[in-house]
Specification:
There is one protein chain. By secondary structure, the chain is an alpha/beta fold. It folds into two domains: 6-118, Response regulator (Rossmann fold), CATH 3.40.50.2300; 148-275, Response regulator (Rossmann fold, 3-Layer(aba) Sandwich), CATH 3.40.50.2300. It is built from twelve helices and eight strands. Strands 5-4-6-7-8 form a five-stranded parallel β-sheet, with helices on both faces. Strands 1-2-3 form a three-stranded parallel β-sheet, with helices on both faces. Helix 6 runs parallel beside helix 12. The chain is elongated.
């Protein structure tokens, strides 16, 4: 991460490491080039450079051209910008810039922006077929989801992992849902109990959380002395998908189970099913 703002660089490194990547920061181009050369000498090359669009008042295109000229086209560069990428895109012909990420650097935006560079490489044909299949599936899911009208519905998401929360919230918000976050099962119970009756339309419940698990939280919600505690749909969201896991969810008072990673169409269909 190349950024002349030390605090911004440190925050970026922290966010990158939180999603499982090894990261380092440089405050100017001289330091960055020196670090890249040192890594190259140890055969421990960087896989990606994140370049702030305005390092020490210089135009990012000159910095990108310098990196490309010194280290070749095998070092992908992604611009970190607070401007419109469309306005900058025409300048990228002479560099190996592969895209941009907007500030502020949320973990979810970093995750999606860099995922293509950190996933395991697949054979070219297999990769092409997988990409084509994914496009078709997304188009079909999008068409089906478009028929579901959930605009303005309030969803409480119980999830201890902030990245998972950001991803789930971003997905559901695209379909007009309004989301709130509870970082563990106990907070979920408290947040629901303190809300006005009928405020929340459904709860998405992670199962493995600190303080209080999703199972315990569902049981606690069903025991609350308010009418909607018995009727609000509680949908488990978990990587555990064996029959016994699903049955345990139902036994604790949940209505249904959907697997991680969150499938938008399945989640939306379940929410609609239990709301109507």
């Amino acid at each position: 991460m190349i950024d002349d703002d030390q605090t911004a660089g440190e925050l970026a490194v922290s966010a990158l490491e939180s999603i499982g990547l090894k990261a380092e920061a440089a405050e100017d181009m001289q330091q960055a080039c020196r670090m890249i050369e040192e890594r190259h000498g140890k055969n421990e090359n960087y896989h990606m450079v994140l370049l702030d669009w305005n390092v020490q008042g210089k135009d990012w295109i000159r910095d990108a051209e310098e990196l490309s000229g010194r280290f070749g086209q095998d070092l992908p560069i992604m611009i970190v910008t607070d401007g419109e990428w469309d306005e900058l895109e025409i300048k990228m012909e002479k560099t190996n810039i592969c895209g941009s990420i907007s500030k502020p650097l949320f973990r979810s935006s970093l995750y999606y922006g860099l995922r293509q560079f950190v996933e395991a490489e697949a054979p070219q044909q297999e990769q092409k077929e997988a990409a084509e299949k994914e496009v078709i599936e997304k188009e079909e899911a999008g068409k089906e989801a478009a028929d579901i009208d959930l605009k303005g519905k309030h969803i409480l998401i119980a999830e201890d992992n902030e990245l998972n929360w950001e991803i789930a919230s971003a997905i559901l918000s695209e379909f007009g849902l309004e989301t709130d976050w509870a970082e563990n099962g106990q907070l979920c119970v408290e947040q629901f109990d303190q809300s006005a009756p009928g405020w929340y339309d459904a709860i998405l419940m992670d199962l493995r959380m600190p303080v209080m698990s999703g199972f315990e939280a569902a049981e606690a919600i069903r025991k609350l002395e308010r009418e909607d505690a018995q009727t609000i749909p509680i949908i488990a969201v978990s990587a555990d998908a064996f029959d016994e896991d699903v049955q345990k969810c139902l036994d604790s008072g949940m209505n249904a189970h959907t697997a991680k990673p969150l499938d938008p169409q399945k989640a939306l269909s379940l929410i609609e099913k239990y709301l109507h």
